[in-house]
From TrEMBL:
Protein name: Putative ABC transporter
Any Pfam family the entry gives: ABC_tran
InterPro entries tied to this protein: AAA+_ATPase, ABC_transporter-like_ATP-bd, ABC_transporter-like_CS, P-loop_NTPase
The organism of origin for this protein: Thermococcus sibiricus (strain DSM 12597 / MM 739)
PANTHER family, A to Z: ABC TRANSPORTER, ATP-BINDING PROTEIN
Gene3D superfamilies attached to this UniProt entry: P-loop containing nucleotide triphosphate hydrolases (3.40.50.300)
GO molecular function annotations of the record: ATP binding; ATP hydrolysis activity
Family membership noted in the UniProt record: Belongs to the ABC transporter superfamily.
Length: 312
């Protein structure tokens, strides 16, 4: 099996409104796949179809090579799913809920309890074990929902905006957990509208806008567009600016709050990269920061989303 998740021509109408257009998702085994798109792009609708909560209007879905919805029960044994609005069992305590979810996933009672104990600690709700779900904050509920997705040690995790209610520290912790789960060999499909988050945790990405998949692939391959705008800080910004201003390949240059922003003619990037560091070294100027002005993923988003709008 080449792909853990594969859809062909996946399409969804709500009434006459076409919400998802001919989606061909391909999620290879072992990747952290970021399903990235703005509010209303169709992420949740797609995820609901992947988990058989919603029927496609047409198109095919295969998970582990098996067809949804026909093989749903068999497939879902190996899938941990965390919905956007988690948890319905509001009157259960966390322990009861997680043990119950473990039992539903086919674990023996003892194993379910053992997993519950370990996962409550893992997601940071150990002290709240006997609290009812309805007494929790939305971030705490999201942590419990994450534990619930992990309860049967799934091969594939499908997470719908899992960090939406987490505080900044919770987000950092969560990203660390996703990275280590991927190292264990799990495949993770995670939706988000936050570029920086996807950049930190995902090595594969699918960009969705207005129900259309506009790019898909390994982040490192998609982002090989050369940047022409850079942020620079040196130990002598004045001199560095003076040097750059004289160069014909520098299209624009200005300094803002101690950072030089330079825009280079893309045809002469090689010259810029060769000459600028050489000059700094010759003058004993130290380079403190040198980075593309926009992050690579942000750049492809801006490019692709514009293309999408033009072709409408
Ligand atoms: N049951 C429904 N009936 C009609 N329209 C719907 C239904 N569910 C979703 N939609 C519409 O489908 C579009 C996509 O919604 P969806 O929730 O999939 O987006 P999303 O990418 O998950 O957005 P967000 O980031 O805000 O969660 C929206 O325009 C929404 O209004």
């Amino acid at each position: 099996m080449e792909h853990v998740i594969e859809t062909k021509d996946l399409t969804k109408f709500f009434g006459k409104r076409n919400i998802i257009y001919h989606l061909d998702l391909k999620v290879p085994k072992g990747v952290v796949y970021g399903f990235l798109g703005p509010n209303g792009a169709g992420k949740t609708t797609t995820i609901k179809m992947l988990t058989a909560a919603l029927r496609p209007t047409y198109g095919e879905i295969r998970i582990f090579g098996l067809e949804i919805p026909q093989k749903r029960v068999e497939i879902m044994k190996k899938v941990g799913y965390m919905p956007e609005i988690p948890i319905a069992y509001e009157d259960m305590t966390i322990v009861e809920f997680l043990t119950y979810m473990g039992r539903l996933s086919g674990l023996k009672k003892e194993k379910a309890m053992e997993q519950t104990k370990e996962l409550m600690r893992y997601v940071g709700v150990g002290r709240l074990a006997l609290n009812k779900i309805k007494e929790l904050s939305s971030g705490q509920k999201q942590r419990v929902a994450f534990a619930s997705a992990l309860i049967a040690d799934p091969e594939l995790l499908i997470l719908d905006e899992p960090t939406a209610n987490l505080d900044p520290l919770g987000r950092i912790e969560f990203i660390g957990k996703i990275i280590s789960l991927a190292k264990e060999g799990k495949t993770i499909f995670v939706s988000s509208h936050i570029v920086s988050e996807v950049e930190k945790m995902c090595n594969y990405v699918g960009l969705i806008n207005q129900g259309r998949l506009i790019a898909q692939g390994r982040v490192s391959e998609l982002t090989q567009i050369e940047e022409t705008e850079y942020d620079i800080i040196t130990s002598d910004n004045g001199k560095a600016c003076e040097f750059l201003r004289e160069k014909p390949y520098v299209r624009e240059i200005w300094e803002e709050e101690g950072t030089i922003r330079v825009q280079v003619d893309p045809r002469f990037l090689d010259e810029f990269f060769l000459q600028f560091p050489k000059y700094l070294t010759s003058q004993g100027i130290r380079l403190k920061l040198f980075r593309p002005h926009t992050s690579p993923l942000e750049r492809i988003l801006m490019e692709k989303f514009n293309i999408g709008e033009e072709s409408d």
